[in-house]
Sequence to fold (626 residues):
Amino acid sequence: MSEPALAVTDLSVRYGAAATALTGIDLMVPRGEIVTLLGPNGAGKSTLMRAVSGLLHVHGGVITSGRVELLGSDVTSDRPAARVRRGLAQALEGRQVFPDLTVAENLAAGGHVRRYRKAQAREALERALSHLPRLHDLMDRKAGYLSGGEQQMLAIGRALMSQPTVLLLDEPSLGLAPKIVETVRDIILDIRDEGTSILLVEQNAAMALSIAQHGYVLESGRIVRSGAAADLRDDDEIAALYLGVSASEGAGSHA
Amino acid sequence: MTATVSTPETTAEVAPGFRRPSQRRRGPWAVAAWVVLMLAVPLLVSSDQWMGVGIFALIAAVGVLGIQIVMGLAGQVSIATAAFMPIGAYTAAWLGVDHGQPFWVWLPASAVVAGIGGALFAPIAVRMRGHYLGVATLGLVFIASYVWEVWTDLTGGSGGRVAAPVVINGQDLLDGYWSGDTQVLTLFQAWWYFAFAVLLVAMVVTWNIKRSRLGRAFMAVRDKDLAAGVVGIPVTRTKTTAFAISSAFAGVSGSLLAAYMGYVTPAQWSLTLSIDFIAMAVIGGAGTIAGALLGALFYKAMPEAVNWLSTYVPFVSQDAKVDGGLTAPLLSQMLFGAAILLVLLFEPRGLNALVRRPFHWARTRRERSAR
Fold:
């Protein structure tokens, strides 16, 4: 039980022959915690997510060194489906729901690797919906016709259908109204309280740091800062860069 | 073309447990009524010509179901039907004629061999998308027609060869079905029932695929293959399976067509055939099961109907004239083209949606008045 939910060790990734996207990344998500990964556009956040979920090859990326471990097992060279079976699920950036499938079908597709029997599928569905009650009334609707917030909830719900131990959330607040962001935030906390470990990639650092226990800051493919979320929140530099607060305003005990 | 294919009815089919109660009750009755109607057709239709048209439509519908799976459900463009149909036809001829095997051997075998053919093509197909995939499958048709022309031992070359007969109780169905000296079923009646039985099996298989985990995987890959990968659907394997199943359906359709015609020539497996099948799928309603039959019926019956109608149109001569002018075949071609355009213009989701419209309308009315 002591091993972390997700551990990335000395991970380096490159695209094509030359472009190095990530260098020597060390990152850990302890069980039952929310860990956030911050960083500007192009820092390599998505690349890191792809390396963890196993979809790097789709984008032409290659792991040149390092390891990805899920619940203590090395999954570095596993296919995406094998990782999902081991307990990893991901809600992709930009929602990426199946637009022509109904909400019910989208959710059912999320349980693909589990090969549920009817009763199990219903149980998984009820569990997922308990976090996302809004989806209840939308079951027959085509996902393509949902609002941005609803699609985000569906993307999270679809990920939950495989009953993951580790959940990767890629920019869940992107493009959502502040009120919806709050709802999404509560949903994430709710899922964490059920025991699921979460790696949260966010541009919205204020939201992310308010719910995470740990945080990492990625810049130009390297981890430049890491620590307790509370410390990062109080850090002047982080405040200035990611929280939209100038250094003088950011009252902070320098960690 | 896969963007707006499924009607509310068809999407409800694939989500067991989330159907409205009214749909759950009526579906089986509608299917039962349709089966009874189909069984009654040979008793109601006396014209051999129209029975022949119907049989061609039933046989074609099996192949169209294959297109519904690969294009409608899995979203992979394939113009290769004309390459996989002859694989089935020649497998059947080889087993049924050269090796004297009965139809219950050659018919499944034509599915298996064509399915393997589709699976072998898949490694190329899964590397491409959209138009590129379409053109690649086009290439397959050209390669296949060359093979049929030169592989004379199997195909008889451009002269063609005898196809596998359907023999039941020692009787070739092309002679009808006899009990002693009395003919119980004519050729057309016998073949109608045989082709309908095969189509029914193909429809049940498709229906089950659509509702299954595999069917959902097809649609997920069609909608967003990246997201499908994220939820753990093996994208490459899913596409390969779609191609294999679709080709198997084409193989069965091909072997049936050859058996019904009694003869196979390489020239009949041209690119036009592939286009015909895609047209049937689109006109019927892409991705739908009923649409496969509706599209095939429309496509096979419309030219005949128009031909027959044109005899009543003034100023149209029945035969080609030296000085040009409007002839019946010419008019029928034009009207056929116009009919296709009209269907697609007024109901892009195809005949399947058009046929369901009144039922849908009645239901919403009932639901509204119930409230």
Notes: Chain A touches chain B at residues 53, 55, 58, 79-81, 83-85, 89-90, 92, 96-102, 104-105, 108-110, 112-113, 115, 118, 121-122, 139-140, 142, 158-159, 161-162 (CB under 8 Å). The longest strand of chain A covers residues 19-29. The CA atoms of residues 3 and 144 of chain A lie 40 Å apart.
